[in-house]
C-alpha cells in the first residue's frame, strides 16, 4: 500500500483563493483575513480565513467606528 497522499486543489472556505492541500483535509483555509460583514452591518471580520460564523450570535461587536450612539451622541466603542 502506498503512503502517497494526493493533493486537492480548490477554493478556500472563505472564497479568497484557490489552495492545494492534502486530500484528507476537510476544511481548507488560507492565510487571508476573513473580511465578511459582521452582524452589526458596519464592520468586517478580522479573523484569518475560517469555517462557520465570524462571531457567536450573542457576542456584540467590539470594533471601534464613527457611528454615534442614539442615547448619548458619543462614538460607539
Automatic annotation (TrEMBL):
InterPro entries: NFX1_fam (IPR034078), Znf_NFX1 (IPR000967). It is found in: Nucleus. GO terms for biological process: negative regulation of transcription by RNA polymerase II. Its main location: nucleus. Residues 40-63 form the NF-X1-type domain. Coiled coil: none annotated. The keyword Metal-binding applies. GO terms for cellular component: nucleus. GO terms for molecular function: DNA-binding transcription factor activity, RNA polymerase II-specific; RNA polymerase II transcription regulatory region sequence-specific DNA binding; zinc ion binding. Keywords: Metal-binding, Nucleus, Repeat, Transcription, Transcription regulation, Zinc, Zinc-finger. PANTHER family: NUCLEAR TRANSCRIPTION FACTOR, X-BOX BINDING 1 NFX1, TRANSCRIPTIONAL REPRESSOR NF-X1. Belongs to the NFX1 family. This is Transcriptional repressor NF-X1.
